[in-house]
Specification:
The chain is of the alpha+beta class. Helix content is 25%, strand content 20%. The two termini are 22 Å apart.
Length: 444
């Protein structure tokens, strides 16, 4: 993703005033955005060193917003109104506000986040201590259930409270900064270093010079695959969503439980609707993104999630026990990274779980594998499935001899764990009542 104000994505507004006008190129959108933001002067544009200098001089905290520019999904949303929102604007004025519109040169030792997002917000001190994060996503295009302007306002208020108590609370914030990254900056990844530099090329094709957020995640996975090494679970299943543990958060409030799924891990731990999560594993929590940050730090081999909550005005502690493989509870099929995994392990085929009705019509019992081919890739390496004879609406009943892979995420994880470049995979296919086996190559 390329980046700008988060604030944009959070508003569901009309497409804007471009109706009836000639459609602008992505390059024009980037340049016009730079000109507008620079002229207005409210946001520091793509200059983090300046933001840190100003924060040190003024004593204000910093809000850094990374957001795709221009994100075609978000043209329907308008960040101009956010800067004048009667609730957000007074809060933002208490921060040094900076937009980062490219990950080129981004310090990944400080700015660590889910790179499958289209925006990410960091609230931090001038000394680089992070107060919290905001911005999450659990679907390719739908945002309403995860983020809102009210939720952003709550996170900003929480960051201001932490800033007011700083540095007395510094020890509780230490774990909000992560370990040393695989590479310090995106352009240093082997698959990116010969294509990109540390800055945007405004004198040339600015759009093509930009490193998108998802490319960082892709580069991390490719780093291991090109060496025929398994992709670490923490990279394959990053930033698990609380939904995977059965907990739905209220997007309009500060880390407040909206729903708990019966029988889920969080239900068994004792979570209830309206619980306000104060801390997780000792870290102050401002948003769902903060929860995901804590979860991301728990090894795939398992561990404990210690939650300090407020319920009906009283504080109590709940413990969620996470067993080995707990990250596999999360859905990874919505992620931009899934496209690369499909190229590797499904030949560009996109699967969806068959409906109850389709299962009945196919005569496949509940509990047995039945995935429907929703899309067949048409070009390049993503056409391997098509070239092998797969068709849209085929049903997959086995993958590499395994018939217990119940979701597309299960298939992709299996491929990562067990298949190497140059091997092949045979899939059992059910098509109009007939069964056949089709083979695809495992690709880089």
């Amino acid at each position: 993703m390329r980046v700008i104000s988060i604030l944009t994505i959070l508003m569901c507004l009309s497409p804007g005033s471009s109706s009836g006008q000639e459609k602008k190129t992505r390059d024009q959108k980037v340049r016009e955005d730079q000109q507008r933001v620079t002229q207005e002067g409210f946001w520091i544009y793509n200059d983090l060193p300046k933001a840190f200098r100003e924060a040190k001089e003024t004593g204000k905290p910093i809000v850094v917003v990374l957001r795709c520019i221009p994100c075609e999904e978000c043209v329907k949303l308008d960040d101009n109104l956010v800067d004048t929102d009667p609730v957000l604007k007074p809060l933002l004025e208490k921060f040094v506000c900076v937009r980062v519109v490219s990950t080129n040169g981004l310090d990944l030792s400080l700015f660590q986040y889910d790179t499958d997002q289209s925006f990410a917000v960091f609230m931090l001190n001038a000394d680089r201590t992070i107060y919290g994060r905001f911005g999450t996503r659990s679907h390719r295009t739908e945002w309403v259930g995860d983020v809102s302007l009210k939720g952003l306002a709550e996170a900003l208020r929480g960051a201001l409270e932490l800033h007011a108590n700083y540095p007395a609370n510094k020890e509780s914030l230490v774990a909000k900064t992560g370990p040393k990254p695989l590479f310090e900056r995106p352009e240093l990844f082997p698959s990116l270093k010969d294509k990109y530099t540390s800055s945007l090329n405004y004198s040339g094709d600015v759009v093509k010079s930009c490193i998108h957020c998802h490319q960082i995640g892709d580069a991390g996975r490719e780093y291991y695959r090109t060496q025929n090494k398994p992709i670490p679970d923490e990279i394959l299943n990053p930033y698990p969503h609380p939904k995977a543990l059965g907990m739905i958060l209220d997007p309009t409030r500060r880390a407040t439980v909206k729903t708990v799924v019966p029988g889920s891990l969080t239900s068994e731990a004792g979570f209830q609707p309206a619980d306000s999560i104060q801390k997780l594993n000792g870290q102050p929590i401002l948003s769902v993104a903060d929860i995901q940050w804590v979860l991301n730090g728990i090894p795939s081999g398992g561990g404990e999630l210690k939650a300090e909550i407020e319920r009906n005005g009283k504080n109590q502690t709940l413990i969620v026990s996470l067993n080995s493989g707990w990250r596999n509870l999360d859905d990874i099929s919505w992620r931009a990274s899934a496209s690369g995994l499909r190229r590797m392990f499904t030949g560009g085929l996109v699967f969806e779980t068959a409906s109850v009705e389709e299962r009945g019509e196919a005569g496949v019992a509940e509990g047995a594998m039945l995935l429907k081919v929703r899309h067949v890739g048409m070009y390049g390496a993503h056409a391997a499935g098509k070239n092998a004879g797969f068709q849209k609406d085929d049903f997959i009943v086995s993958y590499d001899g395994k018939s217990e892979l119940m979701t597309e995420s299960d298939v992709l994880r299996y491929g990562v764990a067990y298949k190497k470049i140059g091997e092949s995979v045979v899939m059992g296919v059910l098509r109009k009542g007939k069964t056949l086996n089709l083979k695809i190559p495992v690709q880089q």
